[in-house]
Amino acid sequence: MKSFTFKILMLIVFILGYLIQLAYSQQNNTNTTKVSLSKTSTILEKIKVKKRLDVIILNAPVVYYVGSDDHKGFEYDLLKDYAQSMNLELNLTIVQTVKEALELTRRGIGDLTAASLSVNEERLKEFKFGPYFHSINETLICHNNLHKKGLIPTELNHLNALNITVGKHTSAAKTLKALKTKIDNFDFNTTTKFSTQELLKKVWKQKIDCTVTDTHIFSLSQRYYPELISTLTLTPKLYLGWILRKGDDSLNESLFRWLNKYERSGKMAELHNFYYGFLKIFDYYDTKVFSQRLKKRFPKYEKFFKAAGKKYNIPWIILAAQSYQESHWNPKAKSYTGVRGMMMLTNDTAKLLNVKNRLSVTQSIYGGAKYFDMMRKNFPENLEGKNLWAFTLAAYNVGLGHVYDAQKLAKKLNKNPYSWNDLKTVLPLLAQKKYYKNLKHGRARGNEPVHYVDAIQHYYDIMVKYELEKVAKK
C-alpha cells in the first residue's frame, strides 16, 4: 500500500513538473516571439501599428502654413495625401526654422522631416533622405532699382559689389561660401534673426541689395514683391527631399511607390500647378491699365456688383474694387493657390456659400459678397466706416483668426486694435517668430493683407472719381 501511494505521489510530482516546464517553455517562446517581432518589425510596420505618421514640418509658405480657410502648403498636401492613402493620422510638430527642424531630427523625433530641404553632400553625410519630390535652383534675388546704379549682376564677379544677406543655417549660405573661394574680394552676411521671406522683404524695401533663395520660394513671393527680380542662377538643379529616420528602407520604399503612382495619376502636376502655376505679377498700382479695364472690361459686370452690394448692404464699388484685385475682372481667373473666378473663391469656401460654379460671374460675385458679409459680422459694432471695411477685407484675404491675432498683438504693443492704421503696422509682425510664437493661429504672411487692402483702396478711389465724372457728364 505504501509502495502504491509512493508511486502515485511520484506520478503527481512528475505531472506537475511537466506542466510547470511546459508553461515556462510557452512563456519563454512567447517572450522570444516578442523579442523577435521587435527586432524584425520594420519602420513602416511600426507606423502602421500606431496608425500615425509623425512629421516635423517647417512653418513656411512652400511647406506648411495656416491659410484663410484651411491648412496649406505644397509639402503638407503631399504628406496629407500619402497619410490618407495609408489610413494614417498625420501628426505635425511645427517648427519655425530649418535649424530647429534639423535639431529635432538629430534627436530622433518623428518619422519624417519636411522643411523644403535641398539634398546636398553635407546633409547626405548626416541624414537619410527619402525619394526626391521637387527640383529647384538657388537664385540671386535683387531689387530692380539696382539697374539705376548699374549694379544688376550679370556674372559671378559682380557679386563683390553687392550687399548680400542669407540665413546662416541654409543651403544658400553654403553655396555662397563655396563661391567666396572663387571670387576675389567677395563676402556676404548671414543672419539667424530673419527668415528667407523676411530677407526678401528687406530686399524689396532696399535695406539690402540681394539675397539668395530657391526658385519655388521666389515664384510665390514675386506676386507680393513685383519689384524683385531673379538675376543669377547660382547652382545646378537641386532636389528637395524629406529626411527619414535611420533604419530599414520600408518607409522609403513605400513613399517611392506612392510618389510614382501619384505622379503617374497626374495629381503631382495638379498640385504643382496649384501652388506654382500662377506666376503672373499683379500690377497693383498700374493706374493706366486699371483705367483701361474700368472702361472696357467692367461695364458688362457692373450690374451684378450693384445687385450683390444691395442684397448684402455692401458698397458696390468696394466689391468691384476687391474683385479687380482678386481677378482683374476675369471670370476664368485661377491663382497659384487654386482659387478661381471673379472673387477668387476656394473650393471649400464655395461649398460653404453653396456656389456650384466658381466660374459663373453671378455666382462668384454673389458668393464673394456673402462671404464678405460673413467676415464683417464677426467684428464688433464699434468698428465702423473704413476701419470696418479694411478689417473685413483683411479677414477675407488672410483669415479671420490671423486678424484676431493681430488685434491681440496690437493691444500688447499699446496700439489701437480697432484702428486699421495701427493694425496695418502690426499684421506684418505675424511673420516674425518672436511675435507669432505665442499667438493662437501662428505664423501668417502679414504683409499680404496690408498690400491687399491698400490696393483695393487705390482701385476704390479711382472708381469713385470715375463715377463722379460720369455723373457730372450727365
From TrEMBL:
Q: Which organism is it from?
A: uncultured Sulfurovum sp
Domain named Solute-binding protein family 3/N-terminal: residues: 63-277
Q: Where in the cell is it found?
A: Cell outer membrane
Against Pfam families, the record matches this protein to: SBP_bac_3, SLT
Entry's Gene Ontology cellular component terms: cell outer membrane
Q: Which SMART domains match?
A: PBPb
Which PANTHER family does the record associate with it?
MEMBRANE-BOUND LYTIC MUREIN TRANSGLYCOSYLASE F (PTHR35936:SF32)
Record key words, sorted: Cell outer membrane, Membrane, Signal
Q: What is this protein called?
A: Transglycosylase, Slt family
Which domain of life does this protein belong to?
A: Bacteria
Q: How does it sit in the membrane?
A: Peripheral membrane protein
**InterPro entries recorded:** Lysozyme-like_dom_sf, Solute-binding_3/MltF_N, Transglycosylase_SLT_dom_1
Q: What is its main location?
A: membrane
